[in-house]
Design brief:
The complex is a heterodimer of chains A (262) and B (253).
Chain A lengths: L1 H35 L6 H13 L2 H23 L8 H39 L2 H7 L4 H38 L5 H11 L2 H27 L4 H31 L4
Chain B lengths: L12 E10 L2 E11 L4 E5 L6 H8 L7 E6 L2 E2 L5 H8 L2 E4 L11 H5 L1 H5 L5 H14 L16 H13 L5 E5 L7 H18 L2 E6 L2 H7 L2 E6 L2 E7 L9 H7 L4
Parallel strand pairs in B: 3-8, 3-9, 6-7, 7-8
Antiparallel strand pairs in B: 1-2, 1-4, 4-5, 9-10
Classes of the chains: A mainly alpha (262), B alpha/beta (253).
Chain lengths: 262, 253
C-alpha cells in the first residue's frame, strides 16, 4: 500500500513541478511582452538582434530549405509515380514548404542557433553579475535584454520563412526540372496556380509564433541560469529542448486553428 | 558584544533589523549598520556569512523579509517603485568580477548609465567616459577595446570608472581586490580611498581582505551568524574582544 502512495506522491510532485515550470515561463513571457510596448525602447539592441535572427540565420535556414525542397521533389515523385500522379509534384512541394516544412524547419534551425545563443549569452551575463549590473545602472534588464529579443524574433522569423519558402520551392524546381524532366515554366505555373495567399499567410503566422516562443524560452533559461559554467550549459540545452517542444506542440494547435479543423 | 559607534549625525544609508531568507533558509537576521558621507565602512566576514546577500538586498537585487533600509531619506522596502528607483540612482556599484558588458567597448561600458538611462548624447557621454578613464588611472587608448582585452586589474578600474560616471553619493565595492595580484590590489585600494576622499561619497566595502580594509576603511562591521557580531573603528580591530573576529583575523576561521 505504501508503495502505491509513494508512487502517487511522486506523480503529484512531478505534475506540480511541471505546472510550476509552465507558470514561471508564462509569467516571464507576460512581463517581457508588455515591456515591448512601453518606453524606453532600445533600438540599437533591437536592430542588432534582427541582424542576428534574420541576416546571420539566413544561410543555415536557406540551406535547410533548399535540401528539403530537393528531397521533397524526389520523394513525392517516386511516391506519386506508383499511381501516375507525378504531375502533382510542384503543388505538393509548394504547399508542403509554405504551410508546414518552411516554418517548422526554420523554427527548429533557429531555435538551435538563436535559442541556444540567447540562453548562453544571458546565462553568462547572469552568472557574471552583468544582469545585476544593469539594474544598478538604472536600466531594467527585462526591457533592455529580453523585450528587444522577443520583438526581433517575432518579426524576423516570418521574413526568414518567406525566404525559406522561395528557396525550398527553388530546390524542388531544380530537382524536378534538372533531374526528373519537368517543364520549367509549367512547374512555376502550377506552383503559382495552386499556392494561395492563405497558404503563405498560415506559414508566416506560425513563424511569428515560433519566433516568439524561441525568444521567450532562450531568454527565460538564460535569465534564470545559475551555478556558473555548468548552469549556463544546462540553460542552453534546456532552451533548445523546450523551444523545440514548444514549436512542435504549437504547430499542431496552429494547424488545427488555421485550417479550421477544430 | 556590540560596540556601536556612530561617526556622523546624518548617515546617507541606514540599515535596521534587516532580515533575508532564501529558499526558506535564513541568511541575514536583525542586521543593522549605517554609513555617512565621506566614510568607508567595511562589511567584513568569512565566506558564506551573507556579505554579498546583504548588499544585494540593500540594492533590491534580492528580496528582504524584515527591517528597514533607508537610503537618502527614502525607506526602500516600503517606498513606491519609482521612489525606490530614484533613491537607488544615488548608488554606484563595483562588482566582484567588474561585471562589464562583454558586447560593449570600455567607454560604452563606462558611459552606459549616461546614454541608456539618462539620455545623454553619445559624444558628451564619451567625453565623460574618457575623463573617468583618466580618474581611474587607465590610458585613453583602452577606450575602444572590449573588456575581454583588459587585465583583471584594468577591468576592476574600468568597473570603478563606470560606478563613478553618474557621480553617485554612495558606493558599494563587492570584494574589490579578490583575484588580483598584490600590485593591482594596491592600485585598486588607493583608487577607492582617493575616490571617497575626493568626492565625499559614502562607501560600503564588502571584503574578507583585511589588508585592504586597513588601507581604505574607517569603520568595520563584522558579520557572524547572519548578523553584525562586532562593529567599531578599524584601529580597534586587533583589540576586539569578539572571539570569532579574532579567529578571522588570525586566519583560523
Amino acid at each position: 500500500m505504501t508503495w502505491i502512495l509513494d508512487g502517487l506522491a511522486r506523480i503529484g510532485a512531478g505534475l506540480l513541478s511541471l505546472l510550476g515550470g509552465v507558470g514561471a515561463r508564462a509569467l516571464f513571457a507576460f512581463q517581457a511582452t508588455w515591456r515591448i510596448f512601453a518606453p524606453p525602447f532600445f533600438p540599437r539592441v533591437f536592430f542588432g538582434q534582427v541582424a542576428e535572427f534574420f541576416y546571420f540565420s539566413l544561410p543555415v535556414v536557406g540551406l535547410t530549405a533548399l535540401f528539403t525542397g530537393m528531397v521533397l521533389a524526389l520523394q513525392s515523385y517516386t511516391g506519386f509515380e506508383r499511381f501516375n500522379a507525378e504531375a502533382a509534384v510542384p503543388q505538393v512541394v509548394a504547399l508542403s514548404i509554405a504551410r508546414e516544412l518552411g516554418p517548422v524547419l526554420a523554427g527548429l534551425m533557429v531555435s538551435g542557433r538563436m535559442g541556444a545563443a540567447m540562453a548562453a549569452e544571458l546565462g553568462a551575463m547572469r552568472v557574471t553579475e552583468q544582469i545585476d549590473a544593469l539594474s544598478t545602472l538604472r536600466v531594467d534588464p527585462m526591457r533592455y535584454l529580453v523585450a528587444p529579443r522577443i520583438l526581433a524574433a517575432t518579426l524576423s522569423l516570418p521574413l526568414l520563412v518567406l525566404a525559406a519558402d522561395v528557396i525550398g520551392i527553388l530546390g524542388g524546381y531544380l530537382v524536378a526540372v534538372g533531374q526528373l524532366g519537368f517543364d520549367g515554366p509549367l512547374f512555376v505555373s502550377n506552383v503559382m496556380r495552386f499556392l494561395t495567399g492563405g497558404d503563405l499567410n498560415s506559414g508566416l503566422i506560425k513563424a511569428a509564433v515560433f519566433g516568439y516562443l524561441i525568444a521567450v524560452m532562450g531568454c527565460y533559461h538564460g535569465f534564470t541560469a545559475s551555478a556558473g559554467a555548468e548552469g549556463v550549459g544546462r540553460a542552453t540545452t534546456s532552451a533548445v529542448v523546450s523551444s523545440a517542444i514548444a514549436i512542435l506542440a504549437s504547430n499542431f494547435l496552429l494547424t488545427a486553428l488555421l485550417f479550421g479543423i477544430v | 558584544m556590540m560596540s556601536e559607534t556612530k561617526t556622523a549625525p546624518d548617515p546617507i544609508l541606514s540599515v535596521n533589523g534587516l532580515g533575508v531568507a532564501l529558499g526558506g533558509k535564513t541568511i541575514i537576521k536583525d542586521l543593522s549598520f549605517d554609513v555617512a558621507p565621506g566614510e568607508t565602512l567595511a562589511l567584513l566576514g568569512g565566506s558564506g556569512t551573507g556579505k554579498s546577500v546583504t548588499l544585494k538586498a540593500i540594492l533590491g537585487l534580492l528580496p528582504s523579509q524584515a527591517g528597514q533600509v533607508e537610503l537618502g531619506g527614502v525607506e526602500l522596502r516600503t517606498a513606491s517603485g519609482r521612489d525606490a528607483a530614484m533613491a537607488r540612482a544615488r548608488v554606484g556599484m563595483l562588482f566582484q568580477g567588474a561585471a562589464l558588458f562583454d558586447s560593449l567597448s570600455v567607454w560604452e561600458n563606462i558611459a552606459f548609465r549616461l546614454t541608456q538611462a539618462e539620455g545623454m548624447e553619445r559624444t558628451a557621454a564619451r567625453e565623460r567616459a574618457l575623463a573617468m578613464l583618466d580618474a581611474a588611472g587607465l590610458e585613453r587608448t583602452l577606450a575602444e577595446r572590449r573588456p575581454a582585452d583588459l587585465s583583471g586589474g584594468q577591468q576592476k578600474r574600468a568597473g570603478l570608472a563606470r560606478a563613478l560616471a553618474a557621480q553617485p553619493e554612495i558606493l558599494f565595492f563587492d570584494e574589490p581586490t579578490t583575484g588580483l595580484d598584490p600590485i593591482s590590489a594596491g592600485l585598486i585600494d588607493a583608487l577607492m580611498a582617493d575616490t571617497v576622499a575626493r568626492t565625499g561619497a559614502a562607501a560600503v566595502m564588502i571584503t574578507h581582505d583585511i589588508a585592504s580594509v586597513r588601507k581604505v576603511c574607517q569603520r568595520v562591521a563584522f558579520l557572524h551568524d547572519g548578523t553584525i557580531g562586532w562593529t567599531g573603528e578599524v584601529a580597534a580591530l586587533d583589540d576586539s574582544p569578539f572571539p570569532p573576529l579574532q579567529a578571522f583575523l588570525t586566519g583560523r576561521d
